[in-house]
Amino acid sequence: MENKLLAPLEWSTVQRLIKNLVPCDFNPRQISDAELKKLKESLEKFNLVEIPVIDTDNTLIAGHQRIAALFMLGRGEDEIDVRIPNRKLTEEEFKEYMLRSNIHNGEFDWSKIEEFFQDIDLEGIGMDMGDFDEFLKQNAVQPPEEEGTFDATIYEKTESVEGDLFEFVSVDKDIKHRFLCGSSTDSENWAKVMGEDKINLLVTDPPYNVDYQGGTKEKLKIKNDKMSSDNFYRFLYDFFVNTYIFSHGGAPVYVFYADSEAINFRQAMLDAGYKISSTLVWVKNTFVLGRLDYHMQHEPIIFCEETQPTEIETHRNLIYGWNAEAAHPWHSDRKQSSVLRFDKPLRNADHPTMKPLDLIGYLIKNSSKQKEIVADGFLGSGSTLIASEMNWRQCRGFELDPRFADVIVRRWVAYMKENKLNYEVYRNGKQLTESDLEKWKKE
């Protein structure tokens, strides 16, 4: 087919009924609910000042949000001024004008830019490519990260000491994890770990006050796992008050707990200000032998908000809630069950109450976004930190026992090496060399 000469573009103003204008299905401009509310208020006060632009077939090129707002105001039958070209735009002209008209007006849906606008010289028309490059980096097809077998040995002589502040930098993802070898009930410790950050999500597994002893050859014990009821309540309350203070309003919370201490867990969370939403149940593939008549094959999980916790063994309960100062975020669909079925780790070599990474990752993805802050006041062997790394979140946490602090360092370094990810490790502000890190291996 012969190439036809295109007439120079000339624009004129005509009238169209709002209801006859056709939105473009690949419009990359996006608008938040708050921005849309402001736009509606502006239209009500000043009417339509900046008129939309359409193609000759009434397809919108610029002004999608204004037209949407007018429809929401009940003005679909109104006739308004629009700008229209003397001829139908080519596909390239249409896309370029659409992008140029939006460069300085709000946010782009980068997935649509990637899908529909790759043939446009984006940088050449003045777009800031930083955000787009970051989008491409985060959405590049990559092999899934996995953690290999990691049978951590517990040494009584440790490299970590109480008070050590570790920072793990995941260079390729541009995320940082930070944890302190110390108590998570101390507000000064939280200030050291959090800095200017605020918690977006808390996923934590406090001691259950059941004097638990692991079934490993080391007979691993958990600190703060045998207190009087009053002391245990105070311990939990101090912890939850700190997490509340250092979290965003609405920050979701998942807390593993034991039914035998359900009252203390729930009361401490309520008194700290959290809103308890529900109890989730982690059903395990096997039960754990113990002293009870009915061996536990579940674990409860309290889900709550910042303004209420989880049980023991083949299911486990989770308290789910959030910081009550704002609405809580939710990033999954509305088909999620309160019964979570994930196989428990076959061995608890890393920590006596170790949780599977896919369970923690599931909770993390439901209630946070990439690069947000996920906190855990009782890291144990570091499963929350590893799950955060795996899912592009940034962990802030604590581990009181220097033996397990050592495990966390070894485990994260091994994970990064296994997945060929660049990393840096800092201890109290000083970067550790590979030679330094060898000390944690104890081999």
From TrEMBL:
Q: Does the keyword Methyltransferase apply?
A: yes
Kindly indicate where the leader peptide sits in this chain.
Answer: none
- Ranges annotated as spanning the membrane: none
Major enzyme class: transferase
What is the superkingdom listed in this entry's lineage? Bacteria
List the molecular function annotations (GO) for this entry: DNA binding; N-methyltransferase activity
Q: Which UniProt keywords apply?
A: Methyltransferase, Transferase
Q: What is its EC number?
A: 2.1.1.-
Q: Name one GO biological process term.
A: methylation
In what residue span(s) does the DNA methylase N-4/N-6 domain sit? Answer: 199-409
InterPro entries xrefs:
DNA_methylase_N4/N6, DNA_methylase_N6_adenine_CS, DNA_MeTrfase_ParB, ParB/Sulfiredoxin_sf, RM_Methyltransferase, SAM-dependent_MTases_sf
Q: Which SUPFAM superfamilies match?
A: ParB/Sulfiredoxin, S-adenosyl-L-methionine-dependent methyltransferases
The UniProt family comment states: Belongs to the N(4)/N(6)-methyltransferase family.
What is the name of this protein? Methyltransferase
